[in-house]
Amino acid sequence: MASGLSAGTNSLNGSMESSPKREGQSTTNQGQPNLKHVVSVKDLSRSWLMTLIEKAELLRQTPRPLVRERLAGAMVATLFYEPSTRTRMSFEAALTRLGGSIIGAENALENSSAKKGETLSDVFRVVGSYVDAIVIRHHETDAVAQASIYSPVPVISAGTGSGEHPTQAMLDMYTLWREYGHLDGLKITVVGDLKYGRTVHSLLQCLTWFEGVQVTLISPKALSLPSDMLEQLRASGLDVKQGENFHEALKTTDVVYQTRIQTERLVDDAEAQAAKDYSIGLTELGLLLPHARILHPLPRVGEIDPSVDQDHRAAYFRQVENGLYMRMALLDELLGGVAR
């Protein structure tokens, strides 16, 4: 695990003041020009990510009674229009550990007024009058970003269709930092569904902020990264290439970022069948360097064999735990901690 962050404070005992506005933190909102939403990686920056990593480490090390004072009395709504286990529960656990409370709608597409045709902008106006922030997963790629300007409180995306998943990318970067102690200079192989995989889309954008990162993309041709996104990444300076030989890529990489096939978004079952050539078992594990790490946003559905789990290079369950602390840090930042 990495150590030695030069934190502005070494405790969270109530002395930390509300966080100042940082680079990447101004999202225009009707009537509230400084209200911060996190609906895309574009709402983040390298400096703010490192601040959140710093805070996540401090929260991790601070006694729970002190942590529970951070957001005592705060309330957050979770609205999930698509299924979720880790993201929903980690946000709910994060706020509870910080002393706040949750109200929510699971399966909101069927069990809310969306069933009656209510617009998302109206949902944000209504729910925003009850709570201090909204965490939302939505099935449409652009709907959350478009409607967030109507929300009177911060909106955090918990994943939008096949678009982005910014907080997953944040916890992925936090995991890489904890495993390696740095984020510059890593060789990363991204495997699986790169077309519909929103976690991949957000992670790759974050990687553009760091020096010397080399990315190899491995996927069935039908599920390759959209060409416009690939061009944007290269224009941002990321060293990224399309790989052809999965096993050869494993031999030299520092990180394998494995993903599942988004079967719920496929239009052709043949796309899913082609992805079976890119799974990780004991044979693939034997090709990896001793210091390599395997990450996966989960759930897995066969692309990593359970026989791999006990190897120290399998970091995906540590990755899950890191998500709790990163989301605690984000909520604490957006809602002001003890200075609320």
Give keywords.
Rossmann fold; 340 residues; five-stranded parallel β-sheet; 9 strands; single chain; 2 domains
CATH superfamily of the largest domain: Aspartate/ornithine carbamoyltransferase
Shape: globular
Report helical residue fraction.
25-40%
H/E element order: HHEHEHHEHEHEHEHEHEHHEH
Mean pLDDT: 86
Q: In the CATH scheme, what's the topology name of the largest domain?
A: Rossmann fold
CATH architecture of the largest domain: 3-Layer(aba) Sandwich
- The top level CATH class name of the largest domain: Alpha Beta
Note poorly predicted spans: 6-10, 14-33
Query: Major sheet: order of its strands?
Result: 7-6-5-8-9
Question: How many domains would you count in the coordinates?
Answer: 2
**What structural class is derived from the secondary structure elements?**
alpha/beta
Q: How much of the sequence is in beta strands?
A: 5-15%
Radius of gyration over C-alpha positions, nearest whole angstrom: 20 Å
Number of continuous helical runs: 13
Note the gap between the termini.
Answer: 32 Å
Brief write-up:
The chain is α/β, with parallel strands linked by helices. The chain is 35% helix and 13% strand. The protein has two domains: 41-163 and 323-339, Aspartate/ornithine carbamoyltransferase (Rossmann fold), CATH 3.40.50.1370; 166-320, Rossmann fold.
